[in-house]
Amino acid sequence: MVRGRKIEIVSFLLLQIVVAATAANVTYDHRALVIDGKRKILISGSIHYPRSTPEMWPDLIQKSKDGGLDVIETYVFWNGHEPHKNKYNFEGRYDLVKFVKLVAKAGLYVHLRIGPYACAEWNYGGFPVWLHFIPGIKFRTDNEPFKAEMQRFTAKIVDLMKQERLYASQGGPIILSQVENEYGNVDSSYGAAGKIYMKWSASMALSLDTGVPWNMCQQGDAPDPIINTCNGFYCDQFTPNSNNKPKMWTENWSGWFLGFGDPTPYRPVEDLAFAVAIFYQRSGTFQNYYMYHGGTNFERTSGGPLISTSYDYDAPIDEYGLVREPKWGHLRDLHKAIKLCEDALLATDPTVTSLGSNLVASEYKTSSGSCAAFLANIGTESDATVTFNGNSYHLPAWSISILPDCKNVAFNTAKINAATESTTFARQALKPNADSSEELGSQWSYIKEPIGISKADAFVKPGLLEQINTTADESDYLWYSLRMDIKGDETFLDEGSKAVLHVQSIGQVVYAFINGKLAGSGNGKQKISLDIPINLVTGKNTIDLLSVTVGLANYGAFFDLIGAGITGPVTLKSAKSGSSIDLSSQQWTYQVGLKGEDTDLGSGDSSEWVSKSPLPTMQPLIWYKTTFDAPSGSDPVAIDFTGTGKGIAWVNGQSIGRYWPTSIARNDGCTDSCNYRGSYSSNKCLKNCGKPSQTLYHVPRSWIKPSGNTLVLLEEMGGDPTKISFATKQTGSGLCLTVSQSHPAPVDSWASDSKILNRTSPVLSLKCPVSTHVITSINFASFGTPTGTCGSFSHGRCNSPRSLSIVRKACVGSRSCKVEVSTRVFGDPCRSLAKSLAVEASCS
Ligand code: GAL
């Protein structure tokens, strides 16, 4: 006993020593965050832990580290952690402590954005909806009930992190915390109370004594010592609000989010790299990719409204956890080049010189003589050749060259040395079970959800109710039901008891049923106005309106009060005479949620599933169930919902989110090839116009067993579930790259002391992404003036006839290969022309 106690004390002391030894002192000065007395250049990326699974986290974090990140940034998601007041959840995808510890284990830092307002295209911006029902509460302003809750939750998170010794001051990875989020964008709408609240947020945060700095983003007047940081597609023009604060960028949008009904945004990596490079060129020292891995809005976590289930974001790591090339690789090269400049960047402020119109050089020098330079061409039209320190450099339009020794170029933002990898979705015919020869789809069972009121807790109220106040967001669904007697002589009727039902809703989907039959539907973000021709009968009639939310608003002043649902008017009118009757203030019967939600049909466990054929299809409100075996292999899995309408899906009881393949992207604004030159905006580069916004839905591998899996769908509008297919996302069957003679040599040709090693010619280097693969064929190779892009390369006027055989010889049979891009290797097929080498290879 005594001995045990001694060991306990000794190990406690040892732990203290270890903690004391590894505890870091994090402060800042006007140039950078300062960790243990040393200024740091930090490269950060956002990964939101509930948008992937704990099983995915280690790989995502490792890929972030391999991509050159130092810091992982995440919000804390209040409504995930406290779904009901005082009932906490820190398990599974919400195991924040585990996530932070995994980041620490990989040797990376954490920026914890506690908020607790997040925004983030997350349901209700991360606020739990129960907060809205606290008497007297007003969100994000000088309001006691709100401040009490915000302080309680913020303190709860800080305490949890402290208990686990996760702050850097305790030896943990957290070097920075954020309070609030972009409040400066909206605070004027809250008047004087907004300012009081902002200052209160700052001092409340500071009082929690984390031992590391706090930041507020987009808050130009953030009080000292809180660091005000910038969010945007570019932040090179940003200056912090005090000469003692470093220039920090908390959200560099690596792409943009997708909405149902919208085309898919993408951001060319040349522009993203340009934005990063010019930020460090102009004295920035911390930037964060929002997102580095976007992930998936599982369950009902997406905000918006109308944010899609995929939160891929065109991020360097895709929704499924695979690196997106050449984005990931080009940024990795950029990070290496920036890190080669770290000592010089941090030593001083730069000397800035103009090299001509739109051409700027920034030179950083240490007292011991190291020198790093950034050369920028911020013109959007023409490439330039500049002279710097007596040497000549080619600068493509809208690009930055990085010279870690002020002489040799290690990187140019517009010259990509990372190969494009093809990724494909491979269809898999799934068997309902191992012994079956049938394919998935032959064994579906179903349960019909009653149309209209079916639950005992339905209630009657006069007038039309706002939806969120009624459902408290416990479900997407709210029934508004009305019975009415029709005599046949009403003035709003046309002959044959025809009429027009007019319904107005503030979002997001309405289905109108007349006497149990679907008569019409519509959807919209904040306004739906339907005029549906209907047939009534003499005698009793039922009007059942099903209103459906698709994520609650998450951004803007007073977003919490935007509301949803059928707020009216609801009228019946004659198409001919225009005579009408307003039903809005009638006695409506309400039902929150669906019967099948109450009985947890999503789990698949019910005994009521019907397997009689034929399977009813293309009818609204049916629950479907089937079983399936895991797709073979270990590649990430998606379900292709083409053929279905809209609903929610569960795999083995886990909700994979809302599916809506019939939501079609608007048909304008897309471009096949987006010019990366010039300022980016969220609608500059769009693809997928006129097609379903999202057909593929991620099912994390860890949610699938080898066999006997259950898939349940709640189909709202009518569809055919037998059309569903599974797909696995595969990477690396094809590799493409074009490297010109003016490309810098790979950044790997630099030693860590910022000295360039001997080789100075550009090199085309290929590597099969899958470790067991080798390059099996070279489908195209041309040194000269090749044209086209991956998959459609062709020879130009100038081509070295030896191209294919040289590249084949160097590459086929190996996992990776390097080929020098020079006339020394290929000969010179056309003396006066600038040449490049384009290669398309296959791996397997
Ligand atoms: C920012 C916000 C983020 C996210 C982003 C868009 O304004 O801070 O949380 O919503 O916009 O993806």
What does this 3D model show about the protein?
One of its GO terms (biological process) is plant-type cell wall modification. Residues 758-844 form the SUEL-type lectin domain. It is found in: Secreted, Extracellular space, Apoplast. Its EC number is 3.2.1.23. It is an enzyme of class 3 (hydrolase). With 844 residues, the chain is of the alpha+beta class. The protein has four domains: 2-341, Glycosidases (TIM Barrel); 422-449 and 598-729, Galactose-binding domain-like (Jelly Rolls); 459-592, Sandwich (Jelly Rolls), CATH 2.60.120; 760-843, Sandwich (Jelly Rolls), CATH 2.60.120.740. The protein has 13 helices and 43 strands. It has an eight-stranded parallel β-barrel, surrounded by four helices. Strands 20, 33, 37, 39, 41 and 43 form a six-stranded antiparallel β-sheet that branches. Strands 22-31-23-28-25-26 form a six-stranded antiparallel β-sheet. Strand 4, helix 2 and strand 5 form a beta-alpha-beta unit. Helix 5 (144-163) runs parallel beside helix 6 (191-207). The model is unreliable at 12-21 (pLDDT under 50). Bound molecules: beta-D-galactopyranose.
- Mean pLDDT, to the nearest integer, reads 94
**CATH C-level of the largest domain:** Alpha Beta
If you compute it from the alpha carbons, what radius of gyration comes out, rounded to the nearest whole angstrom? 30 Å
Largest sheet: 8 strands, parallel, barrel
Superfamily at the CATH H level of the largest domain? Glycosidases
Bound molecules: beta-D-galactopyranose
